[in-house]
Amino acid sequence: MNTQSLELLRQEFIQEAQSAPKLFKDLAKVEQYIAESYKTRALIELIQNADDAESSVFGIHDIVGGFIVGNNGRAFTIKDVESLCRSGSSNKQRGGTTIGYRGIGFKSVVNIANKVTVFSGDFCFTFNREKTQLVLKKNLDVPLIRIPHLMDTSNPIHEQALELKEKYKYETIFIFQDVLEEISEEELSSIDRSSLLFLKNIRKAIIDHKNIHRNILVEHKKVDTRRVVRISEFEAIDEWEVDYLADNEVDLVAFKKEGKAIIPARPDESVIHSFTPTKEFSGAFIKINGDFSTDPSRKTIDFDSQSKKSFQNAVSIIVKAITAILEGDLTREGFFTPFVNIHVIESSQFKLLLFKSIEAGLENIRILSNSGKSESFSSVRLKPEWLNFEDYERLCAEGLVSINKTLITTYPELFTFLKAINTKTLNIDDIISSINNSKISIIGCAQIFEKIINQYRYDLDTDKIAQLKTLKIFPCNNNIFRAEYVKSASELDNEFKSYLKNNVDTADLNLFLKKLDISPEILPEKSVVNNESANNTFQSTSATYSSNFKAEPAIKKWRSAEKNAQEYLKSLNVALSVKDVTEANLGYDLELMLHNGKRIYIEVKSVNSFVEPFKISNNEYSSAHNYGAEYYIALVVNNDDFQIKFVPNPIKTLSFEKKCERWSWFCGQYDDKLKEINEILL
């Protein structure tokens, strides 16, 4: 044992304490403050210290009278011992290869135990308040982590700890005695395995203490400019896709994955890391890591210049990924799911900042338009709800950028995300500017004319009339003409007239036709439902299907309830796509994407009648809770008379009872909450 250098260091600390007893007493108060600030984080700090020592294995083990913490990293030098004893004297540098840099994290262990013994390399010493008081010959408040004391290695507890040290090939062990059980148990059970995600060296964490047994494995695999990290704990496996910029593997963004798709991380996982997690919500359901400044407890971010730089680098990573997606990258299914439904987090300084920063970052990028030209992001236009997708794409052909259907099918949340960062929607002024150079369908002409009527019915001056007369918007004789070439409504295409008759107030329609010098007399004076209702309202889900369906659903008795429900939903006019994700174990069976960009998550339950109880799994219950109003339960009677009804937002709507059979949630009464499809997709 290296007792000589340790004794010299010990005598130095004793002399300091004797020459300045009041200061020494103050150090005890500072130490207690640090410990209270780090409450429930002391073990995370020990993991961080192990990672800084380039340890690949970290362990916590139960022993008689306490527990040990071990790692297989570099052994202590005398400088390391001194840094451990002092506050703020760490030789770690900000922005360097190590995580901590204040040298105070280890002091947090005073909230765990009253005695701490260290074995590392040639050093063996203990921290003990009673021994410190005996050495100073004064009964006063003293810090625990200050004066290292030499110790008798023949202590039976030490022998047990050394056996564990040898068994697990640890280079350094800390023995905690006279422990505060409540605090230590809380910390041991509450360590989130995702806390290890951004550590550089730790690949295994073992917790074997009393009734807590955890074995966490971390695997890193580099894939192109991303890194895939798998964190497993027995049968539970979390996979994270970590993005970074070239030559910078400190500022990182991690997306949680399930199968091949990115999914939202849990709110408690979605925090900013300064290598180890803070308590700051990252702004989306992702993790962000960087060289962030924190308060002394490392729980909140101090947004200084270095923190701003790391945050901006994280934004650049996200913007780069979004740019690739907008240019056609279809490999990152689910990418935008962590950026929607953020409203469930009530307050966060980074929620608004993240979206504003992404918006600002996208302003500087250029992407290819439909015509193949490079355009700024400000040229991107979202599809308005009232316009069909094909004509939306045609109208963006000149100078504007549309989001194509393939992209939306792969990334159903893209419209929702782009709206959240204030991306413009294709408006009537955009359409008027480009319509004469676009080959618009007959229904597209009708939808645009309906929009013009609704928008200008109270503001139709002579200049606007003159402008509208120049638009090629009136279909007849298999062509599209300006108003001046159409004398009577009788010349107009029947499909065009039928749409207007069913979606526009007759008085308004006749007024516009007259203003455009088109005789309207053949159109009956009849008020009809508005476009939104016509497009989004549907009939009963029985065997009779209305014009609100593209075709009669291909319901087959031999198909599963999930497949028949998928066929039913695919037949709806409003359905852009319906994905069966049953095998992905996401907590729902079907993802319904509507033409307006809205996404709905549907869990299908087969019942014999609409009064039969049904159950949902814990995973389904969690998904229903997370998605709220976007989550539906579809009750399916899957027999000769196929029937389907829906319960929107079931956690809020229904009453569930938890039963222990691998935990399921039972609902026995719901018949008064069932909805037809036309009652929920309005």
Describe the structure.
By secondary structure, the chain is an alpha+beta fold. Helix content is 33%, strand content 23%. The strands form 6 sheets. Strands 1, 2, 3, 4, 5, 6, 7, 8, 9, 10, 11, 12, 13 and 14 form a 14-stranded mixed beta sheet that branches. The longest helix is centred in the middle third of the chain and has 22 residues. About 5% of the residues have low confidence.
Short characterization:
With 682 residues, the chain is an alpha+beta fold.
Count every beta strand, where a strand is a DSSP E run of 2 or more residues: 28
Instruction: Output mean pLDDT.
Output: 85
In angstroms, what separates the terminal alpha carbons?
Answer: 78 Å
Work out the helicity level.
25-40%
Class by alpha and beta content:
alpha+beta
Low-confidence blocks of residues: 89-94, 96-102, 522-544
Q: Could you describe the largest sheet, including whether it forms a barrel?
A: 14 strands, mixed
What's the Cα radius of gyration?
A: 33 Å
Helical region count? 22
Shape: elongated
How large is the share of residues in beta strands? 15-25%
